Amino acid sequence: MLLYFLISCLSFFFLSKSLSLPPWASESRTLLSFYFSKNPFMTTLHPTTPDPAASPLLDQMSVLDLPELALDHILDLLPPSGLCSMARVCSSMRERCVSDHLWEKHLMTKWGKILGPAARREWKCYLSSSYHLDSPHRQTGHPLGFDKIISLIRSISSVFRDGDKQRKRYASSLPLDSTMSCYLSLETGRFWFPAQVYNRENGHVGFMLSCYDAELSYDTHTDTFQARYPPHGRRAVAIEKGVTWDRLRAAPIDASPHHLHVSDSLNELKPGDHIEIQWRRNKEFPYGWWYGIVGHLESCDGNLNHCHCHLSEMAVLEFNQYTVGSRWRRTMINKRDHREEGNEEDGFYGGIRKLTCKQEIAMWTRLWPSSILE
């Protein structure tokens, strides 16, 4: 069986040498050298030191000479730009390089932490929107023609280095429902997706230690995002540029920012617990999530050996980023019958999330302001 495998590979090799490949295809020799040196199967076939006379043969091989399993392994190691380049070899290579299973890994690696269920729903709506009506696929109702695909693949690597106009044209030419199309739509900023932004509006003092919903578009030149915040009452849509990756997260709760979150762990709250609570200025505004800590009741001296605050129906929430005496410093809630509470002057407090994830808590700690707020 092994002898048959070797004969088949050699036959394919000599046949392929008669084919004319583009000059850049020889760049795959580096990948071949890596594969043959690292693959344990090939080490088994060649347990002794290889003959120096055979090295020119290896140097002349191309990626098309590899068995399918080896080729799949190499494609799995390529970055997005490498997949785009490899897709230019031939039609069969193109089908491999644009397959969803390869691009899903890249999508999750770069974008997974900020793409939640709402973003995936928005992507489906985006595919059916008029934004894609200029695509040949959408106009004809038939799959994209081979000539269009080949033209796309020949230029797709420039998606990562050319100007905005070219990148948008190439992204719109991809099969719309592919993972590769989603990845490139995110990379080019064509697709605005929902997520949440910490300390919105460049860390405006009025939003310190909060997290608000926004629509985001990526700018590959600066590796930052543009954020559009929903209108607050009569206030127009607020736009913020230069939002960095470390200020973003996927919404922890898949719900509209106007919906009151139903808290399910209030009876477990005790002093020292970290929480996020919904707050909005008035009932026309969407909720934002604000960071706080469960404090002690006024009747408690804070001594943990004698503390019974966790047994009380009431809980104190402290926002220690504000100075002592500030109206924003403390509030109280009823753990057994908690609803939206507040007024037009102090705002309205909504649902509560108890934070148990160390990464979430560390994120809020990292954003702590350098000075106490009034």
Automatic annotation (TrEMBL):
<protein>
    <recommendedName>
        <fullName>F-box domain-containing protein</fullName>
    </recommendedName>
</protein>
<feature type="signal peptide">
    <location>
        <begin position="1"/>
        <end position="20"/>
    </location>
</feature>
<keyword id="KW-0732">Signal</keyword>
<dbReference type="InterPro" id="IPR001810">
    <property type="entry name" value="F-box_dom"/>
</dbReference>
<dbReference type="Pfam" id="PF12937">
    <property type="entry name" value="F-box-like"/>
</dbReference>
<dbReference type="InterPro" id="IPR036047">
    <property type="entry name" value="F-box-like_dom_sf"/>
</dbReference>
<feature type="domain" description="F-box">
    <location>
        <begin position="60"/>
        <end position="106"/>
    </location>
</feature>
